[in-house]
Design brief:
nine-stranded antiparallel β-sheet, 9 strands, alpha+beta
């Protein structure tokens, strides 16, 4: 299928601060065990950000957020939905980029089985939906998305993103004024 192959993203791309890395993740491919989608929406979180899970320091829950760039930080939101973040910065920094949405490209039948009877365009158009569609859960916390052969990989197929839409983060109650949400402009 066209658009599902690429090379593993170089870890050095992820070693910058989350607000710098986040827009660079747009257009990249997220591959999880046969399912692939193009990242179309992200949000940045840093250690000094009141809305970030790392603002209070390292805990058992957020430990992977303080790990190596390219690690996955997976948490359970409201005790219901898993959310996946790609850790950025240096080890100990406590910052990450939330993957808010992808456009499914491969493994769509498997995503449909996991998500039930929803329209294809709604399979992974939110962070909880994305994790459900791709089968990502707390067991994936700490996975290295830059490792060749890993179950979860971040890939670059060279498709450019032109002028993303920048806005305020959603689904949070603190630091809502920061323009740290980026999404691919919808055609039209």
């Amino acid at each position: 299928m066209v658009g599902v192959d690429g090379s593993i993203v170089a870890r050095c791309l992820l070693e910058g601060d989350a607000p710098e890395v986040a827009p660079q993740l747009l257009g990249k491919l997220l591959r999880v065990a046969g399912c692939t989608g193009r990242i179309v929406e992200v949000e940045a979180y840093t250690a000094d950000d009141p809305a970030s899970h790392s603002v209070g320091g390292r805990t058992g829950r957020n430990a992977s957020m303080f790990g190596r760039a390219g690690s996955l930080y997976v948490y359970l939101s409201y005790g219901i939905h898993h959310c996946a973040n790609i850790v950025t910065g240096g080890e100990g920094d406590g910052q990450a980029v939330l993957i808010r949405a992808v456009v499914p490209l491969a493994g769509i039948e498997q995503m449909r089985r996991r998500r039930g009877s929803v329209e294809d365009r709604r399979l992974a158009d939110g962070p909880g939906k994305l994790c459900q569609a791709f089968g990502i859960d707390r067991g994936d916390d700490g996975a290295d998305v830059c490792r060749a052969g890993g179950r979860i990989q971040l890939l670059d197929d060279g498709v450019p993103v032109v002028e993303p839409v920048v806005g305020r983060r959603v689904g949070i109650s603190r630091a809502t004024d920061r323009p740290w949400r980026w999404r691919v402009r919808e055609p039209g």
